[in-house]
């Protein structure tokens, strides 16, 4: 395969296709850096004079740092708690699949993947608000719990491929089940933990529906929710709106630029398992 | 030994109980309320199947189902065709392969809501401008403002984003195929077209199945794109089922009625997914 020469027709098609992805992003950046007069002259061209103040205005209008903090707290707590708890549940299930009870748990959790969210949507709003969980803590809880369905599916498949001998050796040395899990199994889960962490982080960071229906306090709004709430006020000023979009998209894009290969490999490997 | 077994229960039970409390219990509640006339507060009575009968008689609900299915089927086909083509492209011998993989996965990390807002602008300003410059009547107005065409705009945005993830899954599938097989087939004189239908496609059949099922299921649940781009409009022409349940349930005081709609929706999704899985998996075996 490596001996073959570059496939030019494919190269050109892939290049043209990538423009369809990059063009809307280019457009977003140029609009965010212009003022209305420059927009009137030409929408597509690179700004002749860069208006950085759009960003500071957008930060003020949307209370960006507050929303950023909210999104960051929710995402980090969700990812950490998901890794710690979901892998543990999966371990218990994977090592006891021969027992009816754990087998039932597996199918119970995995089949919930096919329950559409709207069936839960109305009651869960009532439930979280009457329990005082219509806040960040409630959201983190829901993300960790709702992630179980998919994560159990991924983790159990992976744990089954880990030879039991390793744990038996640990048991010989006198380690209990808990110690075996944390000292032996959890470190072995690193590749699959990475995949779960990436997918969970993308979900918690970008999710719009749960914050929209659960959060009651405006100060707790996440980044996507803030964009939605301020949409009406932006409608007169596209430049401010687009600066705000960039601010909301930038954190994930920056993470992606640094961890790109890792993220794609994680997702690819997660898919093959 | 007993202590060992007990530990497993302690590992699994707290999370499973929470799952029951925050997932299964609300789902059961939703089913329960669907048989009442509760509007979200105050008293209620049992009304039997009345809500369900009304869902089937409600032209707005029926329209939401038709729109959602039209949207989901078209998007699933488009996404899978393009993802497969792009994955094959990204798997062949080209320069900057890793760079292009990075670019094609990029939409997957962006918020659907914000992507919707950005495309809103493109449909409202960029494309009509282009249409005028090129004197193309068809492009010169905002398709999101046209009740007959707005759904196409939503398909474009949904596909633009979903192709990223499906491409990566197909790419994972393609990498499981050993290059020896291709070398053997090219020695036998198989052309590119033949190679695709006789080798590539059958060998990635399981990936095709999972991509089709996941894509259709996700598109049947379309919500963020609708909120960002049309709010269900113009009129109710792009109202998806989940958007209708959200709007009717929270803003229209139709808590019980939309719960019944959600139960119908649940049954539809499970049936569609199972049928699809059955058909596609049978195809896998035959190949």
UniProtKB/TrEMBL annotation, chain A:
UniProt entry tagged with the keyword Membrane: yes
Primary location class: membrane
Cell compartment(s), UniProt: Cell membrane
Keywords: Cell membrane, Membrane, Transmembrane, Transmembrane helix, Transport
GO CC field: plasma membrane
GO BP annotation list: transmembrane transport
Protein's membrane topology: Multi-pass membrane protein
Boundaries of every ABC transmembrane type-1 domain copy: 68-259
Transmembrane portions of the chain: 12-33, 71-93, 105-125, 137-159, 180-205, 240-259
UniProt family annotation: Belongs to the binding-protein-dependent transport system permease family.
Protein name, per record: Carbohydrate ABC transporter membrane protein 2 (CUT1 family)
TrEMBL record, chain B:
Cited Gene3D superfamilies: MetI-like
Compartments, record wording: Cell membrane
SUPFAM superfamilies: MetI-like
One Pfam family, short name: BPD_transp_1
Any one Gene Ontology cellular component term annotated for this protein: plasma membrane
Transmembrane segments: 7-28, 62-90, 102-127, 149-174, 195-216, 262-280
Keyword annotations from UniProtKB, A to Z: Cell membrane, Membrane, Transmembrane, Transmembrane helix, Transport
Residues in ABC transmembrane type-1 domain copies: 65-276
Family to which the UniProt record says this protein belongs: Belongs to the binding-protein-dependent transport system permease family.
Protein's name according to its UniProt entry: Carbohydrate ABC transporter membrane protein 1 (CUT1 family)
Organism from which the protein derives: Falsibacillus pallidus
């Amino acid at each position: 395969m490596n001996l073959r020469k570059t496939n030019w027709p494919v190269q050109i098609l892939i290049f043209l296709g990538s423009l369809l992805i990059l063009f809307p992003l280019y457009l977003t950046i140029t609009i965010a850096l212009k003022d209305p007069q420059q927009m009137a002259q030409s929408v597509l061209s690179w700004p002749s004079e860069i208006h950085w103040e759009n960003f500071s205005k957008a930060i003020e209008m949307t209370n960006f740092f507050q929303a950023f903090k909210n999104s960051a707290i929710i995402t980090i707590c969700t990812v950490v708690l998901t890794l710690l708890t979901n892998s543990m549940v999966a371990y218990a299930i994977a090592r006891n699949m021969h027992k009816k009870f754990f087998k039932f748990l597996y199918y119970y959790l995995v089949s919930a993947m096919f329950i559409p969210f709207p069936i839960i949507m109305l009651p869960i709003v009532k439930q979280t608000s009457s329990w005082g969980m219509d806040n960040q803590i409630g959201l983190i809880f829901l993300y960790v719990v709702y992630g179980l369905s998919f994560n159990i599916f991924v983790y159990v498949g992976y744990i089954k491929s880990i030879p039991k001998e390793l744990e038996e050796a640990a048991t010989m040395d006198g380690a209990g089940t808990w110690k075996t899990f944390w000292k032996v199994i959890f470190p072995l889960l690193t590749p699959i933990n990475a995949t779960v962490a990436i997918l969970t982080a993308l979900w918690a960071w970008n999710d719009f529906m749960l914050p929209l229906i659960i959060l009651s306090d405006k100060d707790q709004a996440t980044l996507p929710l803030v964009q939605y709430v301020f949409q009406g006020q932006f409608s007169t000023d596209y430049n401010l709106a687009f600066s705000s979009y960039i601010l909301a998209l930038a954190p994930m894009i920056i993470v992606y630029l640094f961890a790109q290969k890792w993220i794609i490999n994680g997702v690819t490997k997660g898919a093959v398992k | 030994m007993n202590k060992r077994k007990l530990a497993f229960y302690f590992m699994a039970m707290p999370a499973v109980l929470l799952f029951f409390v925050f997932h299964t219990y609300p789902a059961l509640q939703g089913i329960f309320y669907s048989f009442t006339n509760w509007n979200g507060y105050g008293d209620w009575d049992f009304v039997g199947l009345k809500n369900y009968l009304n869902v089937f008689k409600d032209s707005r609900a029926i329209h939401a189902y038709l729109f959602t299915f039209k949207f989901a089927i078209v998007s699933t086909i488009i996404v899978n065709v393009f993802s497969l083509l792009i994955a094959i492209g990204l798997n062949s011998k080209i320069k900057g392969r890793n760079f292009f993989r990075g670019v094609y996965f990029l939409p997957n990390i962006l918020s659907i809501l914000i992507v919707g807002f950005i495309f809103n602008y493109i449909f409202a300003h960029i494309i009509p401008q282009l249409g005028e410059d090129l004197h193309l009547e068809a492009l010169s107005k905002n398709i999101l403002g046209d009740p007959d065409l707005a759904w196409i705009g939503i398909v474009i945005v949904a596909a633009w984003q979903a192709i990223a993830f499906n491409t990566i899954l197909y790419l994972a599938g393609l990498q499981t195929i050993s290059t020896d097989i291709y070398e053997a087939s090219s020695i036998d004189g198989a052309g590119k077209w033949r190679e695709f239908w006789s080798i590539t496609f059958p060998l990635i059949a399981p990936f095709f199945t999972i991509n089709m099922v996941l894509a259709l299921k996700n598109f049947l649940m379309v919500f963020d794109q609708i909120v960002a781009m049309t709010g269900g409009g113009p009129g109710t022409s792009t109202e998806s089922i989940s958007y209708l349940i959200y709007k009717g349930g929270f803003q229209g005081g139709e808590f019980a009625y939309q719960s019944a709609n959600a139960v119908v929706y649940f049954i539809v999704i499970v049936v569609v997914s199972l049928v699809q899985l059955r058909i596609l998996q049978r195809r896998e075996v035959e190949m």
